[in-house]
Amino acid sequence: ALALATGAGATVAIQRVTAPDPRPATVAVRPCAVVDPLSGTTSPPRGSPPSVRLPEQVRLPPGAAVFQYRPGLRVIGRAGDPCTAGGGQAVNSITVRRGSAWTGVFTPVTLGDAATSTCLYFPTSPQADRLRAQGRDCVSDAVGLRDLPTGVPGLRAALSAPVGSDLVGRPPSPYADAALSVLHPGDGGAATVYCTLPWSQADTCTAALTYFYVEAAAEAGAGKAALDEAARLIADHVAASRR
């Protein structure tokens, strides 16, 4: 943009450079291969999913991409890593992984998975109380577990370190190690996004957790102010996750 400045009897045109918005309106989506849980065979990706519009709270870092198995099951991960989806007839997980560096989303399908995820990430929720009333030993060993305010009645969210990430190991220190879970009303269990990446790529973890949360909370009716505040708290959580 041009601005005019007047001084000493002369008028000078000054070029003002306006930085572009780093949040793209739409981004291409990459498909995921599918792993059969019984045979272990992997089917190659089928076709290319359409582009998606990113929420304004999400900035896609350089070297990151959005991966999708189906609408509603997406994750942000490193663009150069392979993506696989699994879960049989009801695919319920998507993982972008190379070695011990990964991002992923897990949504429970069975009643057992739903109960386990509820107790793990939301042990003080009404859903967890109902499970205890049914005789279930509903306890949590999640590290650093704390609530993330949603601003939506009945919608709960929690921040923590990934549980079970020792199963796939961890990158050499320093690395980011963060997770976020969402629990909707009802007994469907908690959906969780995980991220363990080298510290130099911690911004990809921030993007992955924020994208997952904003999609879920906005669909449940969260307003812009609540989403902006959640995005800030998620960024703080990732910043504190250095290991």
Structure keywords:
243 residues, alpha+beta, 9-stranded mixed sheet, 4 helices, 16 strands, disordered N terminus
What does this structure look like?
There is one protein chain. By secondary structure, this protein is α+β, with helices and mostly antiparallel strands. Helices cover 22% and strands 32% of the residues. It is built from four helices and 16 strands. It has helices at residues 111-121, 126-133, 202-219, 224-239; strands at 2-7, 10-15, 26-27, 29-31, 33-35, 42-43, 52-53, 64-70, 73-78, 83-86, 93-98, 101-106, 146-147, 156-160, 175-183, 190-198. The strands form four sheets. Strands 6-5-10-11-12-16-15-14-13 form a nine-stranded mixed β-sheet, sandwiched between helices. Strand 8 and strand 9 form a beta hairpin. Helix 3 runs antiparallel to helix 4 (224-239).
Taking the sheet with the most strands, its summary is: 9 strands, mixed
Helix count equals 4
Instruction: Briefly note the structural class of the backbone.
Output: alpha+beta
The best one-word shape is: globular
Q: Helix amount, in percent?
A: 10-25%
- Overall mean pLDDT stands at 85
Low-pLDDT stretches are: 1-20
Overall strand count: 16
- Strand-and-helix sequence, N→C? EEEEEEEEEEEEHHEEEEHH
**Strand line-up of the largest beta sheet:** 6-5-10-11-12-16-15-14-13
